[in-house]
Write a structure and sequence with these properties.
26% strand, AmpC-like, alpha+beta, Beta-lactam-related, Lipocalin, eight-stranded antiparallel barrel, Penicillin-binding protein, putative, 17 helices, 541 residues, Beta-lactamase, nine-stranded antiparallel beta sheet, single chain, Beta-lactam/transpept-like, 2 domains
Length: 541
């Protein structure tokens, strides 16, 4: 089975963490739940963060702590190389931390009975009753019965399907409505309401629902309902507005292991709406956390109750945490005996980690400018701060840094064993394709996954077929490597240097004599309780 490097849940499954990684430990804090009046960002802590950034090849990171009535913040490293330093005011792409605002907005509408369409059934309102022409799934029952609650906690039966997420169509930005309408072509991999399957596209659906109800752009609603009242004046859903801000917008990077250097990844136009579109800084995130911790601000008491109410089990106990339960854009678990709400954000070249603990009115957010390594480094830093505040002895802390390095080593080596992983024992003698490689070139199409235009690349001894997908959110290529006869491995990999995506699947050409009719790609979900699925790309040119 092809190993699945899921785009969000890999890092969300908290691996063994801080305590034995070789980093010097900060003096333990008192175990009693007391507010600090002194900043945790000491010189010693700065040395620790600098070593984490160096080890994980992360240019910069900003972090903020909410501790009762106090907010502390600091920046480390660089927001833009070579010399623009990261500060608390630096703007970063926050990716999936956007989802909590979508969920909170809908909850406020429901609790306040703001719209007749939601008044009777609330979260149980069928999505199709609000956007009937646009919300159609491959299964009739799922179309009619999928509710707002199902979508918000990722239990609709749809897997990620992130490779279908198209950003541009014929050079123009793909409207949210068109993204929603594409769902009718995508297979379900589980019965609705049985399994948690993280799904970005469903938050595009919920964004469309909000815009349909309010008849306003999503950003306007966020600003009126939450951002404005909380004075989150450095938070945006629009890249152009963020770049016009007086605060610097960080540059995203990838680390090139071969050249031992950073490469910039520019997000000039990428806007992912309510699924992952937020651009903000740690100071604004701290204002949001404080509102959640103190149950104050523009949201009602009922909405705050709703935000803390979990809906579905999202992960098994792991690495010092209990079962993870997903609710309104937050994972809820138990960490060292206390309730913890958390979420991460992963973009092509950014990572955000956010923890808040209601019992002690304490929260931490870290934002960095490399995908994957930035999330690992951020979690190492966040856990250090949280466990220091909780007074957790070194011996009871998990080594997140060590586990993160092991994870990166595993990911770096996975592609090398892909053929054996997909097909098992390979034939001693490779059978060549039954048709000339030139006949495999051309355009293939699936209504859900779109166009793949394959072209030969490489020399005669090691030719591969490559299809570029610059129009998609994840900016990926599909690279086909021959195994034997009509069997291939399809590598989904970044075309701009990011670690996202990095997956592989079995692929099979359908041929008849000298004619090529289609390409099957066998997608593996890698999740208990779900089934794998096949996508057939018919050759059209």
């Amino acid at each position: 089975m092809a190993r699945i490097q899921t785009l969000t849940l890999l890092l969300a499954s908290v691996l063994p963490c801080l305590g034995r990684s070789g980093y010097s430990q900060h003096p333990l804090r008192q175990s009693a739940i007391e507010a600090r009046t002194n900043s945790p960002f000491t010189d010693d802590f700065g040395t620790f963060v600098d070593s984490v950034l160096s080890d994980f090849k992360v240019p910069g990171l900003s972090v903020a702590v909410v501790d009762r009535n106090h907010t502390f913040s600091h920046g480390y490293g660089f927001a833009t190389l070579p010399d623009v330093k990261a500060t608390p005011e630096t703007l970063w792409f926050g990716a999936s931390t956007t989802k909590a605002f979508v969920a909170a907005t809908l909850s406020q509408f429901i609790q306040n009975k703001s719209y007749p369409a939601l008044a009777e059934d609330g979260w149980g309102t069928p999505i199709a009753s609000i956007i009937p022409d646009d919300f159609v799934l491959a299964d009739d029952w799922a179309t009619k019965h999928s509710t707002l609650d199902d979508a918000v906690c990722h239990r609709t039966g749809l897997p990620r399907h992130d490779y279908t997420w198209q950003y541009t169509t014929n050079g123009s930005h793909t409207p949210i409505r068109d993204v929603v309408r594409s769902l009718r072509h995508l297979p379900l991999t589980a019965e609705p309401r049985t399994v948690h399957q993280y799904n970005n596209l469903m938050y595009m659906v919920l964004s469309h629902v909000i815009e349909t109800l309010t008849k306003k752009p999503l950003q306007t609603t966020f600003r009126e309902l939450i951002w404005g009242p909380l004075k989150m004046n450095s938070t945006f859903l629009d890249v152009a507005e963020a770049k016009a801000s007086p605060h610097h917008l960080a540059t995203g990077y990838h680390w090139n292991q071969t050249s031992q250097s950073y490469g910039a990844i520019v997000h000039d136009t990428l806007q992912e709406s309510g699924a992952a579109g937020i651009i903000t800084n740690v100071l604004d995130h701290a204002k949001w956390m404080r509102s959640l911790l103190t149950r104050t601000g523009p949201l009602s008491s009922d909405t705050h109750d709703d935000i803390r109410r979990p809906r579905i089990i999202s992960a098994e106990p792991a690495s010092g945490t209990d079962y993870r339960l997903y609710g309104l854009g937050w994972d809820r678990t138990v960490f060292h005996g206390e309730p913890l709400y958390r979420h991460i954000g992963e973009a092509l070249s950014f990572g955000t980690t956010l923890y808040w603990l209601p019992k002690r009115n304490y929260g931490v957010v870290a934002m960095a400018n490399v995908y994957k390594q930035g999330n690992i480094a951020g979690e190492v830093v966040v856990r250090r701060l949280v466990e220091d505040a909780m007074g957790i002895p070194d011996k009871d802390r998990f080594d997140r840094a060590k586990a993160g390095k092991e994870l990166l080593e595993t990911l770096d080596g996975e592609f090398a064993k892909a053929p054996e992983d997909v097909y098992g024992k390979l034939p001693q003698k490779t059978v060549p394709p039954p048709v000339a490689l030139s006949k495999l070139e051309g355009e293939y199409f699936d209504a859900g996954y779109g166009r793949l235009v394959f072209k030969l690349s490489g020399n005669n001894g090691s030719q591969v077929l490559i299809a570029e997908r610059p129009e998609t959110v994840y900016q990926y290529n599909v690279r086909l490597q021959h195994v034997s006869a009509n069997d291939w491995v399809a590598f989904f990999e970044s075309r701009i240097g990011s670690r996202l995506p990095a997956q592989y699947f079995g692929a099979h050409f359908k041929t008849d004599n000298s004619t090529v009719s289609a390409l099957d790609i066998n997608f593996v979900t890698g999740q208990t309780g779900t089934k794998n699925y096949n996508v057939t790309f018919n050759k059209i040119a």
